[in-house]
Amino acid sequence: MKKSLLPSLALAVLAFPAVGQADEGALRRCRGMADAAARLACYDALPLPAPGTPAAAPAPRAPSRETSLLERFGLETRQPRADRIESHIPGIFTGWDANSQIRLANGQVWKVVDGSWLHGEWNNPKVSIRRGMLGAFYLDIEGENRSPRVQRVR
Hints:
This protein has helices at 5-14, 16-19, 24-31, 36-44, 65-72, and strands at 84-88, 92-96, 101-103, 109-112, 118-123, 126-131, 137-141, 149-152. By secondary structure, the chain is an alpha+beta fold. It has two domains: 1-49, no CATH class; 84-152, no CATH class. The strands form two sheets. A six-stranded antiparallel β-sheet has the order 1-6-7-8-4-3, with no helix packed on it. A two-stranded antiparallel sheet has the order 2-5. A hairpin with a 7-residue loop joins strand 7 and strand 8 (149-152).
């Protein structure tokens, strides 16, 4: 760095809190300059408040989604949730194939997403949908040991 820039840089660093109070448009203009010397001269030319002048409160900003997520980080409350629901499949159920949709008596519709299949015949079988790891859901049919991975459609 050139020696002639050091005093200006030192002044800019010392005046940093005051520069934050400068006109936002002027700051953007300075920030957008590619040439380092011209950018520094632009910052140096910004008007500074008189010593002892109380700092003006920054203009309120509308919170962005990212800001609100960052502000809430670690403060989230864990909502109670069900780990399993139970229902039955009304009528005769003949099994499933990949991408089959299964309608439960409670009105929910679940789609088989793992490519598995099972054929048979069950009359009003009791079923449950349970949570698995990493957000997966599995369909358990009473009396069967195969549980397809499912995703709720409705």
